[in-house]
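Example 3.2
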Amino acid sequence: MKLGELATACGYGVSCNADAVVTGFAIDHRKVAPGTVFGAFQGATVNGEDFIPAAIAAGAIAVVARPEAAVGNAAHIADAEPRRAFAALAAPFFAPFPAHVVAVTGTNGKTSTVEMTRQLWHMAGHRAASIGTLGVTTPDGSVATGLTTPDIVTFLANLSGLSREGVTHVAYEASSHGLAQFRNEGPRVSAVAFTNLSRDHLDYHGTMDAYFAAKMRLFDEVVVEGGTAVIAQGMPSETEACWAEQASEHARKRGLRVFTVGERASGIGLLAREPGQLGQRLELSYDGQRIVVMLPLIGAYQVANALVSAGLALATGGDAGRTFDALARLQPVRGRLERAAITASGAPVYIDYAHTPDALEAAIAALRPHARGRLITVFGAGGDRDQGKRAPMGAAAMAGSDVVIVTDDNPRGEDPAAIRAMVLEGAVGAREVADRREAIAAAVAEAGEGDIVLVAGKGHEQGQIVGRGENARVLPFDDVKVARECAGIPLGEK
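Structure, written as tokens:
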């Protein structure tokens, strides 16, 4: 594909190198090879424009950058939003993509929802994959780890690779950062979903309205005209219901088909829910019919995730009968209310990724009905992230738990003791155990028959991030593995 042809097709002109063959795209100058189109973007700490000379020296034939950027002797594809322009140019180069692509946004539940959607498609006989916090999960269940929303080159390359492998259905997480930075552009997205909105990432977005607006780019710009918006309704708080209604309004203004799920929903209605020891019995309504599903997952928020997944499956042509039957065979998602161990006293230990006040409250509420004795919660807060959520996380833990142990999470570049102190401002009376392994061990040792232990914050993560920038280190740490070791379970046993 020649540069001039590609640029013209996307509405751009080039002053030189029009006949040069495009061999690839890169946003890291160290990955530039002859024939590469280089994206030079301004970031929070690094300005990609500073590396334009190095990229050209390495063989870049074009640079996508702001109009005022100095590009030298390469073609300058200028745009006030160079990230958007770069994505528009890269998409045709990496195409084709899987025929059915859906995206999920929201504060909590994205990971579970995209993975459950993949499972529902798989059980319907499709070659399906998911992309998100857990990485890229392929049709055979293998996982390659990655960021919630990878950079645009990785994202498009992943989709292209999946298409070449015969994958026809893909669900991906659309984070607020990814949407704000145009890391989700390119493929034809036929259906989108909104799970919920609560405080997170305000260190980046500043306000809840700006945070919500970033997520709504998925509805306003990314999904195709006439697509479907699946929205979780019937939230327990008026605030959550307000965000859901605002998401519905965005969908209606765009002309999307609005498909709501949950209590008071018009798509899939939740009529009743009865928790059990290993799951819950759901009574649902769909298309005038009453349906009973035995969902093998615990927690009200897992019901919401499962119903959003079902909505996405139906929106992409899924058969209703097969979709609802498949809900009864869903498997737990790694690090999402994952039962890691049962202690010698019979107390189960659950691991969850909850790292916001609402998510922690939801995880505690999910486990509370199953605890005949005490609920013991171990958690911390990450460094170099929104400090305003730390005390509310402490308050949420104290409100729903009988015993709270505050420990370290990923301190990154902050003083771990200072982070714990902020959390403890909202968790008056909680116990402080700095070392995370010692904190988990203390909870396991204290748990008796009828008790439940919740270890929250890291979920599926395999490491503890200490330090910042070039000094950052990732120390091996897996909450599931540590919980099993503390419970005295030999490696390899369940």
